Amino acid sequence: MKEIYRAHENGMPVVGPTYLARAIGVSKSTAHHMLKNMERMGYGRYIERKGFVLNERGMEEARKIMRKHRLLESFLATIFSLSPEKACMEADKIDAYAGDELIEMIEEKYNYECCPCGNEIPK
Ligand SMILES: [Zn+2]
């Protein structure tokens, strides 16, 4: 979801298995499977030989996940003076588990607008 959102931000609305495989370090068939799964979950459409396109619901979900990820990496970078890469890596391990309440507390206290790499935090 995060990689698809990033691709979207960079002007790439269709994400294929080759791109995704390279971005997250899995095999092409795993990436293909993941994209088909996202379609099954109702987050968009998978067009054979092209790739996956988020629908509105998928976009909403991707924005939510990215918001969590970027608020967490900003927070980790602030608290532990981590480099943007390290903050991103650590946030990747916990963003899926972070509760809404924690995310709101971070947002309220720090009011971040951008993550440590300078990308906008979705509202
Ligand atoms: Zn990150």
Give a quick set of tags describing it:
2 strands; 2 domains; elongated; Diphtheria Toxin Repressor, domain 2; mainly alpha; 62% helix; 123 residues; binds zinc ion; two-stranded antiparallel ribbon
Which helices and strands occur, and which strands form pairs?
Elements: H1 2-9, H2 17-24, H3 28-40, E1 44-47, E2 51-54, H4 56-80, H5 84-94, H6 100-110
Antiparallel strand pairs: 1-2
Helix pairs in contact: 2-3, 4-5, 4-6
This protein binds zinc ion.
Task: Give a quick precis of the structure.
The chain is mostly helical and 123 residues long.
Taking all Cα atoms into account, the compactness measure Rg is: 15 Å
Query: Structural class of the helices, strands and pairings?
Result: mainly alpha
Q: Which cofactor or ligand species appear?
A: zinc ion
Write down the oligomeric state.
single chain
CATH architecture of the largest domain: Orthogonal Bundle
The neighbouring-strand order within the major sheet is: 1-2
Number of helices: 6
Distance between the termini: 17 Å
